[in-house]
Amino acid sequence: MDTQNQAAATVVVDNEWRRWIAENLLLGSNPNDLLQVMVAGGIAPDMAVTELQAAQQSPYLAGAQRLKNRLAKRDWVLDNLRRLEHLRAAEIPRRHRLGTREFFDEFYTAGRPVIITGMMDRWPAMNKWSLDYFASRCGNAEVQVQFGRNSNQHYELDKKRHEKTMRFAEYVNLVRAQSPTNDFYMTAYNDSRNRAALAELWNDVLPLPEYLDPSSQDSGFLWFGPAGTITPFHHDLTNNFMAQIIGRKRIVLVPATEIASMYNHEHCFTYVDARNIDLQRFPEMRRVRPLECTLNPGEILFLPVGCWHFVEGLEVSVTMSFINFRWQNDFTSSYPADRAF
Ligand SMILES: O=C(O)CCC(=O)C(=O)O
Q1: What is the distance between the alpha carbons of residues 37 and 87, in angstroms, rounded to a whole number?
Q2: Which residues form the signal peptide (predicted)?
Q3: Which H or E run includes 308?
Q4: What pTM does this model have?
Q5: What CATH number is given for 92-322 in this structure?
Q6: Is the per-residue pLDDT at 4 higher than 80?
């Protein structure tokens, strides 16, 4: 859009202006306000009026308006679910050794988060895992981590650019020495390399047949980092278990039904920072009711598909995440291909 040369009124209405007009008319802007912006942008008033009238009468815009109405109806359905959700207590329930049937009926199929306690008590990892154990058992393994995250505020979106390979013992020493920091973190994204390199550690993790399918290939992702790691607000494309082994994590959740207020600009991400929600920049966030919890070692958090979550490592922390549930968990293949929302 060319906004130069305002006084001479020589700017032509190009397709970028037309896209802007269409978008703003669909958003419900007053055509007179749009006219003023166009004239201030250097478009001759009569040309601006003609273009605005053409847009308002355009059958293309009428088609788009129809889709907008349909989306508004879907938003109404989601908003009803959101309002009903707000009638519940604002907390994530903790359930001790939750049974299969109860988990399935009350949480998995209902898309509700829950913290399950008492299911990891027999895991060898709970007693054996420590920084020393990691270094002594797998120190020579070559692993991949996310590195240099402090230099890029969009480090999660750009995670490919932050891959770094190093010996596991070297990484363990970094974690030991530099806490707290968000500059480096071994995440599930690094898993394709790490699962094979650290295979020995997987022997210390027991299957959870009450909820997970032990025959599945997707048998756990390792997250290991110093205190201070931040995984910004995003949602997963699957249901997910976070099983906490070492250290505590602070987690902020926003149910999937709140998506209309989450400023989801690209793929599964938002720029909203859970630590300091800027209500000037993101006013719709006033409608959202975040749920907060601390996940302790030995606890498993169920994160329903689409549920927004922000995760902060309060201490040196190790988590295993799992997606190999006994029930349908492929929501990825039906995810929209065009991810610029
Ligand atoms: O533990 C973390 O830092 C993030 C975990 C997470 O976001 C996930 O498993 O989807």
Answers
A1: 43
A2: none
A3: strand 308-313
A4: 0.89
A5: 2.60.120.650
A6: no
